[in-house]
Structures are given as C-alpha cells and as structure tokens.
Design a protein that fits this description.
CATH architecture of the largest domain: Orthogonal Bundle
Mean pLDDT: 88
Order of helices and strands: HHHHHHHHHHH
Number of strands: 0
Oligomer: single chain
Helix content: over 70%
CATH topology of the largest domain: Tetracycline Repressor, domain 2
Shape: elongated
CATH superfamily of the largest domain: Tetracycline Repressor, domain 2
Structural class: mainly alpha
Low-confidence stretches: none
Number of helices: 11
Strand content: under 5%
C-alpha cells in the first residue's frame, strides 16, 4: 500500500509564504475588480493581470472565479458579523424591529461597495460554482443570526410556534437581495433601501404573528 504524502507539508516555509502572498494579492485584485466591473465583467485573466501574477498562479491557488469571490466576501463578512455580534444582543423590541435593525446594519455595511455585494448575489446563480463556494444564500452565519432572532421571538410569544423558521429566513433573504435591484434601476441610496426593506419586514412579520 502506498503511503499518502502531504504535499503541502513538504513545501519549504519560503514556498508556503510565497503562495500565501500570491493568494492575498489575487484576493485584493479581485475585490477591486468585482467592485468596479461586477462578477461577470471581471475575468480570471483580468484578476491575474491586476494582481501582477500569472494566470496559472491563480488557478494553482483557487479552483474557480467563484471560489475567489467567496474568499473576497468571507474576508469582508467577518467584519459585518463582528458588528452584528456587538450590536444585536442590546437591541430590544418586537422581532420585526430587531430584524429591521439587523438588515439596516447590513445595508450600511455594504453601501461603500454595493457593486461588490451585487456580485456576491449574482454568483448565487452561477451554475459553474463548486460546492465549496459561498455566494449569497450559502452564508450559514447570516441565516443562523436570523434564526436566533426568530427563536427569541417564539420564546417571547411574538412569533407563532408553528411558523417555519427556515421559510421566514428564506423570505427575508430573498427580500433583502431583491431590494438591491433598486440600486440598478433607480440609483437608490442606503436610506431608500432600508425604508423599502423595513416595509417588507413588516409584511413578513404579519405572516408569522400570533393569531
């Protein structure tokens, strides 16, 4: 029987350091290009050129453009989740108001790089994405935060016990993503997006309120 060899472990520290440097340069270049050109508008060749590396180096570091976008968004979303973890435990009021606060934080966080976030949403409909990619919709931390808010609402008697939490999560995430169409169609600013989402949360909340 052949012994399995950990090729990564055999690399010298210098090679591992070089690979990590390439990885970070690609992520930084992709972040900028997705933000200015969109997900479809930025090719692997564009990303490699902007990062100052060979196209082959990109493919030896990442399996696909979708994986690069996942890494770009994960590095950003960690900051968003940290902010939510800081704020949400102190938010009071009914579930609808807590959800409004949660999504307002999201909108304000994404406002400086809205094109990048639209790329994140668009990637959810890319058939070629590998299973390991994490486009919008495959973000378990966000969904877990919404479920925590809903569970608190059920415990406090503000949400029907028979309401399906995942169905509510899906409705909220769909509404949030769809609201961003207003950036493209109307040039809507953050205040407008939040106002629209607030009304939609109210409608969804009517559906899960006790009867």
């Amino acid at each position: 029987m052949k012994a399995e060899v950990d090729l990564e472990a055999l690399k010298t520290p210098a090679r591992r350091s070089q690979k990590e440097a390439t990885r970070q340069r690609v992520i930084a270049a992709a972040r900028e290009l997705f933000d200015t050109h969109g997900y479809q508008g930025a090719t692997i060749r564009d990303i490699a050129r902007h990062a100052g590396v060979a196209v082959g180096s990109v493919f030896t570091t990442f399996a696909s453009k979708g994986e690069i976008l996942s890494e770009v968004m994960q590095s950003r979303l960690d900051g968003l989740y940290a902010e939510l973890d800081r704020v949400m435990p102190h938010v009071r009021g009914p579930p609808a108001d807590r959800l409004r606060t949660m999504f307002a934080i999201h909108f304000n966080f994404e406002a400086p790089h809205v094109r990048l976030f639209l790329s994140h949403i668009a990637a959810a409909y890319d058939w070629t994405l590998p299973a390991a990619a994490r486009p919008y919709g495959r973000t378990p931390r966000l969904q877990a935060m919404i479920r925590e808010c809903l569970a608190k609402g059920v415990a406090e008697g503000d949400i029907r016990a028979d309401a399906d939490p995942q169905e509510i999560v899906d409705l909220l995430m769909a509404a949030y993503a769809w609201t961003y169409r207003l950036v493209v169609t109307e040039g809507a600013d953050t205040a407008r997006l939040i106002a629209v989402m607030d009304r939609q949360i109210g409608l969804i909340a009517e559906g899960f309120a006790p009867r």
